[in-house]
Specification:
It is globular, with a radius of gyration of 15 Å. Helix 3 runs antiparallel to helix 5. 53% of the residues lie in helices and 0% in strands. By secondary structure, it is mostly helical.
């Protein structure tokens, strides 16, 4: 199948300005970054990002840590009274399965909602 419309190309990593820019590129080409479109693999990538930032003394957005801002925002959004010990990726997988949609697609929909409510996490205008 061919298409006359080309997908936007992900930017070189050195052009990205943080984890949210990276996630915008992952959304463009998820298979290029996330094996099997697995949200658990994405969670591992984001954890690795925060560890690398900490090791190298770089400022890092810690939104996606186990008990970080995204998780705390997510629990009530998914109708949960308490935080989950299994983490945000597993809970999104469960919710996506119940809704009959792909977990990675649900993650990006939720990410859009999360970022819309936060000025510091919103994508920067170019």
């Amino acid at each position: 199948m061919t298409s006359s419309a080309k997908l936007p190309m992900p930017r070189p990593l050195h052009e990205l300005d943080g984890v949210h820019d990276f996630l915008d590129d992952v959304r463009l080409r998820p298979g290029m970054y996330v094996r099997g479109r697995s949200i658990l693999h994405l969670q591992s990538i984001l954890y690795g990002y925060s560890v690398a930032c900490e090791i190298h003394g770089a400022p890092a957005v810690t939104d996606f840590e186990h008990f970080g801002p995204f998780s705390e925002w997510l629990w009530p959004r998914l109708g949960m009274e308490y935080s989950s010990a299994v983490g945000w990726a597993v809970e999104i997988e469960r919710a996506a399965e119940a809704a009959g949609i792909q977990p990675l697609d649900m993650f990006f929909d939720l990410l859009d909602e999360f970022r819309a409510g936060r000025d510091d996490a919103a994508p920067k205008a170019v």
